[in-house]
Amino acid sequence: MNGRNTVDEVLVAADPAKVVLRQAGEADLDTAAELFRGYLEFYEVEVEDPARPRAFLAERLAAGDSFVLLAEVPGAGTVGFTQVYPMISSLAMKPAWLLGDLYVAPAGRRTGAGRALLREVLRRAREAGVSGVQLETAYDNLVAQGLYEAEGFVREEFHMYFHDLSETGAGAGSGAGSEAGSEPGSATVSESV
Q1: What is the rounded CA–CA span in Å between residue 116 and residue 16?
Q2: Which of 66, 70, 141 is nearest to 99 (CA)?
Q3: Separation CA 35–CA 28 (nearest Å)
Q4: How far apart are CA 189 and CA 102, in angstroms?
Q5: Which segments within the chain are labelled E, that is strand?
Q6: pLDDT at 13
């Protein structure tokens, strides 16, 4: 993946209390899609149809498959997003959440936006009574790893497997180089901070 950042960068983030968060709706799709495209570029995912990221988010929101939070930093605008998918944990026999995507644009890094998004997901998860929040990131995304561990996430010992069924055999979200998820056999995607 990118390997350009170090864990020290996340530890000097600004106060996340100054970040304004909101749940994305239909009116926010253009802004959310712009951030989603940045996320896909960060993970070097080639998107042939430039309209597809927006359509994908619109489909998820319309179907109720996920919810999207946006982070706004005063003076910088809307700089980050996260997308969360409800799922079921067979081991806990309760609902759980998959934090599928977390991204902060370069203009919003070191502002606390990523930390604020993560904390809001955890707050909402506690309020909803879910058993836990699962995520993964690239092995070399040390900034994200530092943030997650600082916020109480624990690296699991399970191996994650993925069988790519795309036409090319190497589709987006192939899981290559991904960390293990907290429940064997669960599918997850990566996020960046």
Answers
A1: 5
A2: 66
A3: 11
A4: 10
A5: 20-23, 67-73, 77-89, 94-104, 133-134
A6: 46
Beta carbons of 183 and 132 less than 8 angstroms apart: no
pLDDT digits (tens, 9 = 90+) for 111-134: 999 999 999 999 999 999 999 999
Environment class of 9 (CB within 10 Å of its CB; exposed 0-12, middle 13-18, buried 19+):
middle
| pLDDT value, residue 181 | 40
Rg (CA), the chain: 16
Q: Take residue 49 and report the two structure tokens written for it.
A: 């149809």
Q: Can you give the pTM of this predicted structure? A: 0.78
Length reported for the chain: 193
**What percentage of the chain has pLDDT greater than the value 90?**
71
Encoding tokens for residue 7? Answer: 């864990």
How far apart are the C-alpha atoms of 98 and 85, rounded to whole Å?
A: 5
